[in-house]
């Protein structure tokens, strides 16, 4: 049966497909939620819609107002899609180094993009966003890194979709952490369903989420885009108590996997999905051998966006030529 027509593009956010990974162990299926099926082609459409609708409901902003967000890209696109349909203006403060495709898409959706120097990092972008908000009336900075609505969006939408599709038979949730909104929303829902559900946070080698679990992480640069942190104190949504383990994946393994996923399984996904897939398969292998005990023999992960967004960075070139 076909779905009736949607009134506008915002109604098409969410209800993305959940697909079995071919490379998973036979007795422990791994399922990936394909978030590039959203209208802005990433997981961040969910928080764009959810945060703006909630802030309008609560009167934090009114129609005609301006949303200002420091963002590396996908969140800007998600917010821009929602802002356009909800009669809000959008301004994004983006450090220069992030992918040009994302900045072009934000502008195409009617948003204004302001660049800050790469050397000032996300911190510089956050500061500039707040300065702009102070100058502009009826403006709001959702601030995905500290806004509980980010986690809530996944608790209310991503998690129930997964549990509905699998009729509750979820043994482990494994997902990449940028803001950690995705994983924390899934983890909270999972632990309420069954407190023994395994929760794995995925980050690139060189990122410092592992230090929150008492593991000596060596800080370094990484090419995997969208996940990881150099300063866990700024990732206010991440709750170490909700996480069993932080799983580190090297750039090389993430890159090999994203290429394998395209070649063997038909997934056009980017590096954070490559890392998530590697980590989810490792967890499934440990469940299979009995090393990890979980309530159901299954692992769920999230593929946050599409590789098309990173073609200018040579995502499908050789590892050494990939400009992450
Ligand atoms: N992958 C990509 C490509 C992303 O843009 C993001 C968001 N930064 C993530 C993964 C991680 O999602 P979250 O912020 O919910 O942890």
TrEMBL record:
PROSITE patterns for the chain: CYS_SYNTHASE (PS00901)
GO molecular function terms noted in the UniProt entry: transferase activity
Origin superkingdom: Archaea
Annotated Tryptophan synthase beta chain-like PALP domain residues: 11-305
InterPro entries, alphabetized: Cys_Synth/Cystath_Beta-Synth, P-phosphate_BS, TrpB-like_PALP, TrpB-like_PALP_sf
Cofactor or coenzyme needed: pyridoxal 5'-phosphate
Signal peptide: none
Keyword line: Amino-acid biosynthesis, Cysteine biosynthesis, Pyridoxal phosphate, Transferase
A GO BP entry: cysteine biosynthetic process from serine
Pfam families, per the entry: PALP (PF00291)
Family to which the UniProt record says this protein belongs: Belongs to the cysteine synthase/cystathionine beta-synthase family.
Protein name per UniProt: Pyridoxal-5'-phosphate-dependent protein beta subunit
């Amino acid at each position: 049966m076909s779905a009736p027509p949607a009134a506008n593009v915002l109604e098409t956010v969410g209800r993305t497909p959940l697909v079995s990974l071919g490379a998973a162990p036979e007795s422990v299926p791994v399922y990936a939620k394909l978030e590039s099926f959203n209208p802005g082609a990433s997981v961040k459409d969910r928080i764009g819609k959810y945060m703006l609708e909630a802030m309008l409901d609560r009167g934090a902003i009114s129609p005609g107002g301006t949303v200002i967000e420091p963002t590396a890209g996908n969140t800007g696109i998600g917010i821009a899609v929602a802002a356009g349909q909800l009669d809000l203006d959008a301004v994004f403060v983006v450090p220069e180094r992030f992918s040009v495709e994302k900045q072009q898409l934000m502008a195409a959706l009617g948003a204004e993009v302001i660049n800050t120097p790469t050397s000032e990092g996300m911190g510089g972008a956050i500061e500039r966003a707040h300065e702009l908000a102070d100058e502009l009336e009826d403006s709001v900075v959702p601030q995905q890194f500290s806004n509980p609505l980010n986690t809530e969006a996944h608790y209310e939408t991503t998690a129930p979709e997964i549990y509905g599709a699998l009729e509750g038979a979820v043994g482990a949730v494994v997902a990449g952490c940028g803001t950690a909104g995705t994983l924390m929303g899934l983890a909270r829902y999972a632990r309420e369903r069954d407190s023994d559900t395994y929760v794995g946070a995925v980050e690139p080698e060189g990122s410092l989420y592992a230090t929150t679990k008492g593991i000596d992480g060596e800080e370094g640069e990484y090419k995997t885009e969208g996940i990881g942190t150099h300063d866990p104190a700024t990732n206010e949504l991440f709750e170490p108590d909700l996480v069993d383990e932080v799983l580190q994946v090297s750039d090389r393994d993430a890159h090999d996997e994203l290429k394998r996923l395209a070649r063997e399984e038909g997934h056009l996904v980017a590096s954070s999905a490559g890392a998530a897939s590697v980590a989810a398969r490792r967890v499934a292998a440990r469940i299979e051998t009995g090393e990890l005990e979980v309530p159901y023999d299954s692992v769920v992960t999230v593929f946050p966006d599409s590789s098309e967004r990173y073609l200018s960075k040579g995502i499908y070139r050789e590892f050494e030529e990939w400009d992450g």
